[in-house]
Known about the structure:
By secondary structure, the chain is α/β, with parallel strands linked by helices. The chain has 15 helices and 7 strands. Helix 9 (241-247) crosses helix 10.
Amino acid sequence: MKTIYLKGDVGYEITAENILKQIDIKSTEKLRVVVNSPGGFVFEAFEIYNIFKSYKGKIEMVLMPYAASAASYIVMAGDTISAFKNSIWMAHRVSSIAIGDADEMMREAEIMQSLENVIIEAYQSRIAMSKEEMKAAMKNEMWLIGWEQLTERGMIDNIIDDIAEIELPDEEIEDAEKSVKESEAENFQSFLKMRIAKSESRMKSDNEKIKNMYERVAAKLEIKPEIKPDDNNIQGDKMNLQDFLKSNPEAMAEYSTALETAKASGADGVQAQIQADRERLAKILKLENAKISAAAESAIIGETPVVDYLEAKLLEQENIRADKKKSPFSEIVAGQTPADQNKIGAEEQKNKGALSVEEFNAKLEKYREERSKKNGGK
């Protein structure tokens, strides 16, 4: 049985070209493929998957311990899959970046969906889930961690207890016998490296697309822009305000006029504007038949300070309260109606400070007389 070791990022350390150098695709010898990868580029993964699927002999894939993203698809090419107790398998939805018009965006989305359908079909050979269920699980990344989860999902056929069961080159055995902690740290670093490499590659591709788009637009408009994009971005020489004004006489004239106007108006101009706004507000209130006093109008237009207006309103409220206290009923205790007075003895009422029935009736009659005089004897 021949054993090969795939470690690193798909498309970088792990490539179809390197695999073809290690195996004879027409051989019928059993092949063991030990995988330790955080993933990589999907198209490279497709090519590698096809190579293993075309291999004439039986293939055993071994998760040691990590097969994620694009690598999770590669291991699906095995006739059997083995794992250690701490092995990991992870899958997520295909991701990409598109730049262009709506048609180009939709075309990119269609390509991604088609790629996902192909990948999911391979996953379904082992995991009993519908296409929609699989997409939903992959949306937030689908993790199978440890032999129990891998077994429950039907991902693996065999559990490996000892590294000695795998025949590897001496340097790979030494690497495989590292502690679990060291292995996890290394896998995490490899995973980060893969993500960074993906981002850099996408940025380079996107910048190239932006550059081409920029040049196409310039060609259509028949202009030759002074600021040209370089190889890595579309930023050119920076121009400050003074440089811009010097190169645009009309803009310089407009800027100078605005500056002089602002200097001439100064604080007086600001105050004049505030006063105009106040007078406009007072006119609007009058037109709307708003009930405002002369004092309020004076405060609005700024003739009277607001503090003085507030003080006058407070004094007015105090006078109103004082007038209310002069009512003939002001001394009546709450709840003591004439009927209540009759139920309580006169002496007790005096002790409580309440009015007797006679006193109450006298005050009521006096109040009615005063009200009648005010109303013209009615």
